[in-house]
Amino acid sequence: MFTAGAAALLAALGLVSPPAAGAATASAPDAFSEIAQQQIAALQAVKAGRTAAESKMDSKLLVAAKGVGKQLNGLQSGTTVSATGTVLVDIRASKVSPDLLAGLTKAGAGIRAVSDRYGSVRAEVPLDKVGEIAARGDVKRVEQADEAMTARQLATPAGDRETGGKTETKQQKADRIAGELQKAVSAKSQRAAAAPLVSEGDRAHNADLARQQFGVTGVGVKACALSDGVNSLAASQAKGELPDVDVIPGQEGDGDEGTAMLEIIHDLAPRAALGFASAFNSDASFADNIRKLRFESHCDVIVDDVLYFKESPFQDWIIAQAVNDVTADGALYFSSAGNEGNVASGTSGHWEGDFVDSGKPVGKFAGVAHNFAGAAGNQIYEPLSAASSSGVPVTLHWSDPLGASANDYDLYLLNSAGAVVSFSQNVQDGTQDPYERVTTAGGTGLRLAIVKFSGANRYLSLSALRGRFSDSADGLKAYTTPGVTVGHSAARDAFSVAAAPAAKAFGRALEPGDPANPAGPYPGSFSGATKAERFTSDGPRRMFYEANGTPITPGNVSSTGGEIRNKPEITAADGVTTSVTGFNPFFGTSAAAPHAAAIAALVLSGNPGLPPAEVREALINTAIDIETPGRDNFTGAGVILADKVLAYTGASPQPLAVAKQPTVTPADGGSALDPGDTAKVTLPVTNDGDGVAASTSVVLTSPTPGVTVAPRAKSYGTISPGQTGVNDFTITVPASQQLGVPVVLNARVTFAGSHSPTTSVFSLPVGTPSPVAQDFAYAGAPVAIPDDSPVGASVTIPVTGVGRASKVTFSVDGTTCSTDATSTAVGLNHSYVGDLVGTLTAPSGAKATVFQRNGGSGKNLCKVVFADNAAAAFSTVTSVNAPFTGTYRPTQSLSGGLTGAAADGTWTFSVVDAAGGDAGSIRAVALHINGFVQPAAAGAPSNVRGVTNNGPVHPQ
Asked: What is the pTM of this model?
């Protein structure tokens, strides 16, 4: 810290402690007060005196490190410093290397998220080490962690924007969710489960009628969501509200907005497959997860409800670029327009336009204030409404390319007495982003000022996110313009979705004195009389640069340049019912976007392969015009109705015939398929679709050398929806086939329908599985699991003498089981098992997730076996089951994914702690691997056991 130096600097400037709001006469609308001039001069002195390393630090981090904010009584650095002196930062690097991660760890950093693609690391670092990290040659910049918000509209205006104003500890949340899960499981076992809840949007959008009329349900489509988290996923599934959901391991997140969004999708498109990944680990992680959902999880429709504050309004940044990549690959992408208000409803906190020189120099170094009044006068302040002045993120962007801003603008927040209370004044000298941000702390008479520190005039965007610009009591006029919808929802091929209530009106006035909020049509459907939510964000969005930084209108980055994108495009329902605690009703464009995404899933289900451009045409051309006649800037083309969209596209029920797991019967009567065997393969084909699968046939082939299949093809005739057809094939395995090397069968199913053909691949084990498991235990020292870090902890288990595996079981061992989170006698001690994701990796590189954020606040795994044939899944456990012991099914099959290849080599068990505040270690784990019976020893199999540690638990 440099507090003494800061004091000397301020003394040299003759700065006195600034007055509190109301303690002095407010400054004139066209001038800074003397105290503000002194404060800004002091802050500019810090800016002007930066070293090369300090120029790579966020201005608020630098001021906090130097202690200047403490000397300026009433000035907030805007940096949240923990009780242990750490700050959460985003480190932007030329490359994320092992050396960088090791250096950060050595500096005391806790790694929170890593993106190799974007060279970005989110970390919790000691404030006094930020300068040291910034001085590294591979570090481009150390920024305050980019924050995000979802587009959920809260029933309580004050309080935490992510928890609905309620403060709930981690333990309280775990106890609540565990109670809900236990209640649902108990009701299900007693056949007393309540009927699933259904979103009123299903009725308001005519989706219920559309499914009945057109016979489409979402079959053949995978719809995936990104939001904060899916904490209550298991409870929702136990209640019958959701089916299986493909959650990217380690990306479960924290919160339940994702669960609520998935319930909406499932209500409207009940047979669509579902997926999820968190958007809240970091901005770069969000972008990575968008790509993973498309390119790894194969999602057809993707929806999110998240805005990162740094997202540029003028150029597609990393998140929008990820959206561009997946839409270019054919995915449909939907995103919430936001709840930042609109000019038409008088709820806006947004202004954009060209910089106007006020002629008012600022401070003692450089700078001139912007004139918001323009030709109408001279006003250097933008006043904030006192009713929405607490915890409001305020962003400033200007029309320079990302990573190449050479024009330096700064942002200041002042109180009614004219004193600066918060600031953002990063350096922009050619390699930085055109971005500044402050967060308000509440109060009356707050106002914003933009200062051009140096450079050319640029087009500006100033947004008080969930705040409102409002005329002040001391005569300041609020200036607002349309266009608050920013970021990836404004990507060219994304759908930005506005909100209209499906049923009851939003339950509170947005600000005192506001008009009543509109109600929806439920149990009727949307019509031309529908009114949009008063908080829904408006467009359009002016863009100046292509994603790569190429100017759209070279030489003109002013109000007459760039490209206009008409955002939002469409409107959908909010204010709906879900089963998720805190989301009944669920208001905001967070609820609207999944309704639109679900309708798109129905479109693709009834029109497989329909080009994205035609889906866009159908949604926009069939939308019911609402609000201002014709297209408007806060509801787009209007509210969509599922029946009209499906009629426009000519949707029809589609068959989906899929080959299922075959059964194998060797001709010699043996129990296993052996080298040299001839066997009957009974192959079932099930129609999982909505329509009849006519003219169904299967071509069965094998790429395994020497294997023959006869006949090659067979007809299955007509298969009705939900029915299964069966046929027999004969395969011959060459005598030279190695034991344990599976026979691979490729089944290609053709039928009359757009989903045809479907292909399935099956691996048939060759050889008699050994009934005896060989045991291999980790014998090393305990390995600590880093808290809330994707780096995780790993232990290795060497395996020898098995050959190929026929069965894999994994155990977490121990000698004495307890819930003492510091116990050294359990296999894995941890104070919050629900934070953990465990992964087993074979020598071949194949992976299987063993457990995935299960168990809530329960402590410790001890004498627990993970076996594919277990009766209960580990996903069903709650904290009352701790310490976790017994036998459970893993999240992913161990034998299905890890057998077939050679088992000999080094196996790795890794554990990642995906949430903060808890600790533990890997102590005793073991593999139990069955090989194959060798011909010479078929009558007397040997029992070969490896060295064990703390007595591994043997699978039954």
From this structure: 0.93
